Amino acid sequence: MAGRLNRSVSLQTVPLRAVEPDPAAVSLDKVKAILAPLDRAQKSKLFELVQAGHLEDDQMTVEVGRLIVAMLNGPRTEHARRIWTGWFDPVMLRTDALMLAESRPPGCMHVVDASAWWFALLPHLRELAGRVQTDIAARASEHPLDAVLASPAAADWAEELRVRSLAVLRQRGGAGPLLATANAERLTLLRKRGLSGVAPLSMGDLAMLDSMLEHAPLWKGAARPRDTIGILHAVSGMTDRGLMDGGTVDGAMQYALALINGSRDPDQALALHGMSPHPVLVEAAVGHVQFAWQCLRQKLEDLHLGRPAPPQLTAGETVDRLQERAFRWYDALQGFGVERGGRNWAAVSAAVGRVTGLVEGEVVPVLSHRLLTLNASSTARPLIDPVRFINGFNHRLRRRGIAASTNPWLTAIGEHLAGLFRQIGAYGREDALTAMAELCELAEETGYPIEVTAIDKTLLGITERALRDGRELNAGESRLIGRVVTVATEERRRCRWWVSGELVSLLDAAQQRGIGPTPQ
Q1: What percent of the chain has pLDDT over 90?
Q2: Which of 57, 73, 89 is the last residue of a domain?
Q3: Torsion of CA 43, 46, 47, 50, to 10 degrees
Q4: Residue 278 and residue 269 in contact, taking contact as beta carbons nearer than 8 Å
Q5: Could you tell me the pTM of the whole model?
Q6: Residue 38's domain spans which residues?
Q7: Which of these three, 37, 54, 73, is where a domain ends?
């Protein structure tokens, strides 16, 4: 057709020119592939070597240096925010448990809280934050961000942001809108972190922010001590510096609270209070008692009542560990001067009472129902530890003079377990000895030991077979066999002239396994 472009001819007559790859870009790609497996410390060391001129090519020195900087700095861009929140690094919580406290201990500044406060303050710091951002970004294009943030220039910016923030916080009439903005931003951050049901920030938290910014230079750059001696030394030094500067101990106490909130260790809290008694440490102790018993309560609800606890609350800790921490904090109260009937006792009593009420009113009935519905084909093993926990919990309560029933388990439970013990023997289960041993262990935990007699020929036969098959016995089976051998030995001693053949055969098997007394 006239006038139509012949595409095939066009393609054939126009020569194709291959695009040659940029040798420099190819070289940088190879360098990047080599650097990728290196850790941060190795990349930092390599950057120092490059900056020292160990590459012969000046252009490659610049390019490789920028490449390493880009890999070290990553996608981090909110430099002004990072400089501002850096004031709180030594006192900031990064674990989420205390965010879920029904009554948060004093001094809790979580990473989410700090970010929320920054976003609330940002509209008032827009021009300054923009200058900080531009300057730090420019420096970070040539140097590792960690080094930039540790530079004198960054320290100057941080101080200016701190002073300006304090001025904003202390403006008349600005507290309400600032708090509302912070809480709105915080909700978004909490959702991203998977946290719900967190109490909103209060005016008290706003006052804490003001105080922390006021005293932040006291702990700037401080590393968190790992042991009690280090904690005491750090807080003592901050106390001395604060007083020497004509101030108070408030800054040192805020740092001490942060350490207690981080470790949640009552011994460390007691040591700090012994060194420098302060009402805020007593308040913190009461708050941690409440939280420790809250964690125990919600864990029990999760385990036994089907009310899931937030995973961040206990962070995978066992119920035994949570119980241990709850009682340790309770026992520490006397060292803080918190006595029964005193000003702070109501909060402690309420926290403990909610757990004891839960155990007595809900957990024990649920476990009792499970005990009473056990049958001859089920296993008792899953119930032994929960019953043992309840017994140990009640024992701890009694030792401390807190009301607890002597035995929370119904007599019907003992009768039911004894009946199951006999049924299992009669049914001829292959694992009869194991099942009967577990029932014995469970019955002892409930306070109703199962009676073992020498006239129970079924039990004698089961025990003898276990002794003669030579298999390794677990602790529960060994205890049950020991009881059977003991009653059989007593029966033989009592009836010297005649005993059953089953009993004689059992004692013979026991002697061969080295169990029981040697016949005279």
Answers
A1: 63
A2: 73
A3: -160
A4: no
A5: 0.84
A6: 23-73
A7: 73
